[in-house]
Write a structure and sequence with these properties.
By secondary structure, this protein is an all-alpha fold. It has 9 helices and no strands. The termini are close together.
Length: 219
């Protein structure tokens, strides 16, 4: 909390993108090798359709918290649009995910994880690109950090109302910390969590991965 990195412990849209959309790309790459299928249809649409149940399976596996449910809803809209040969729109997908989330759970607005996920996504959609364009005008090497800094600042700014409800402190050092911690944390946490699910027959390896995750959480 003091470092502004507590969000690394939550399952959110980043995990959905890496896990589910990564699998969709892999499925599409495998299906395109089936000439009989690829010659008759757009295998990308087929892969996107398969990705919808995968998104919800992953959401259930991750605990079905407010943030992961909202991310799964947004992923569903994007994948359904792709499966129907429509061009996905980020803002529309985000709006539909909020509408669907409130219809499924009328108390979703009082779910802290749902609110923080919605705030962070709104910040990325609205503020990240304009801010990155301004930061790219800075001299090197400062301009190299334009994308991660703009993403962190935008998402943090839109989460600020929720964060002030949770406590009186807001860590400015988190902006700098996230630039380094987010890519490193996600490269470690997501593969380790997914691998842990498959390592039950190997107790020593399972304990090792669990210790790695515990160490990352304490960091």
């Amino acid at each position: 909390r003091l470092s502004g990195l507590s969000h690394l412990l939550a399952v959110s849209g980043t995990h959905i993108v890496l896990a589910v959309f990564g699998l969709v790309r892999l499925i599409g790459a495998l299906l395109v090798r089936l000439e009989s299928l690829a010659s008759r249809c757009d295998v990308g649409r087929v892969a996107a359709g398969i990705g919808v149940p995968l998104a919800w399976a992953y959401a259930e596996f991750a605990g079905a918290g407010g943030s992961v449910r909202r991310a799964a809803l947004m992923a569903t809209v994007v994948l359904c649009a792709r499966a129907m040969a429509r061009l996905p729109d980020g803002v529309r997908a985000f709006g539909l995910s909020l509408l669907a989330g409130s219809l499924i759970d009328p108390l979703a607005a009082f779910d802290v994880s749902f609110g923080l996920s919605a705030g962070a996504t709104a910040g990325l959609l609205i503020g990240s690109r304009p801010l990155a364009q301004r930061l790219q005008r800075l001299p090197r090497p400062l301009c190299w950090a334009a994308a991660p800094v703009s993403a962190t600042v935008s998402s943090s700014a839109f989460c600020l109302p929720w964060l002030t409800l949770l406590g009186p402190r807001f860590s400015l050092v988190g902006v700098a910390a996230n630039v380094l911690a987010v890519p490193v944390g996600e490269m470690v946490s997501l593969p380790a969590c997914l691998a842990h699910l498959l390592l039950a027959p190997f107790p020593a390896a399972e304990r090792g991965v669990a210790l790695l995750e515990i160490g990352r959480a304490h960091v």
